[in-house]
């Protein structure tokens, strides 16, 4: 296994923060969650940043934090679900790191909605069919990656073990 950083991408709620933290722990690597980094910088929750400062400022900060962290090696980074909307972020991650897409079917994602609905401002005020549209539209920005892991019907431990196995072989 090389010292490349591992970067988790995928739609909000698929488990990037949960799985990223567990993978980092098992590999003995530092874990950084980009949403949490931004929250620390602003001393505010993501929903408050969106409301009080605006999504544009959040997206700019997302880009600068990810770009500077991608210059370092040996870490595990979990991005926010919208980070790959920015081409610059896609480029810097794909060229510097091993990018893992966590995939989940919309049917399974729906079952998890109650866990995330209050803390994801992008979902605020959307109907289920609008969320479904966003879910499928967003898959386009996740199309480039180095490994895709389907997480339907698997608990975080199983997904973590599968990823550890894969990165030991491929990274
Ligand atoms: N494999 C899994 N099975 C069941 N629940 C899970 C699984 N992975 C994550 N969860 C739960 O789903 C919720 C969302 O997970 P998490 O916060 O890790 O998603 P995320 O991809 O980081 O989302 P975001 O893009 O918004 O940051 C959490 O409550 C978490 O406990
Ligand atoms: O998918 C998105 O656009 C987002 C996902 C979250 O991780 C946060 O980064 C924020 O709520 C925006
Ligand atoms: Mg997260």
UniProtKB/TrEMBL annotation:
Membrane-spanning residues: none
Cofactor-binding details, from the entry: Binds 1 Mg(2+) ion per subunit.
Subcellular location, record wording: Cytoplasm
Cofactor(s) needed: Mg(2+)
GO BP annotation list: amino acid biosynthetic process; aromatic amino acid family biosynthetic process; chorismate biosynthetic process
Pathway the protein acts in: Metabolic intermediate biosynthesis; chorismate biosynthesis; chorismate from D-erythrose 4-phosphate and phosphoenolpyruvate: step 5/7
Name assigned to this protein: Shikimate kinase
Organism: Neobacillus bataviensis LMG 21833
Record gene name: aroK
């Amino acid at each position: 296994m090389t010292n490349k950083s591992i970067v988790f991408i995928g739609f909000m709620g698929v488990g990037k923060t949960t799985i990223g933290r567990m993978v980092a722990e098992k590999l003995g690597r530092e874990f950084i969650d980009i949403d949490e980094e931004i929250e620390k910088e602003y001393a505010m929750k993501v929903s408050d940043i969106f409301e009080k400062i605006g999504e544009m400022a959040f997206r700019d900060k997302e880009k600068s934090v990810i770009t500077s962290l991608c210059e370092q090696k040996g870490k595990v980074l979990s991005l926010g679900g919208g980070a790959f909307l920015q081409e610059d972020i896609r480029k810097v991650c794909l060229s510097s790191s091993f990018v893992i897409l966590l995939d989940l079917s919309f049917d399974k994602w729906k079952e998890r909605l109650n866990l995330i609905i209050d803390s994801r401002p992008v979902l605020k005020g959307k109907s289920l069919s609008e969320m479904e549209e966003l879910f499928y539209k967003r898959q386009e920005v996740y199309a480039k990656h180095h490994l895709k892991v389907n997480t339907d019907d698997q608990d975080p431990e199983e997904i973590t073990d599968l990823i550890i196995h894969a990165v030991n072989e491929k990274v």
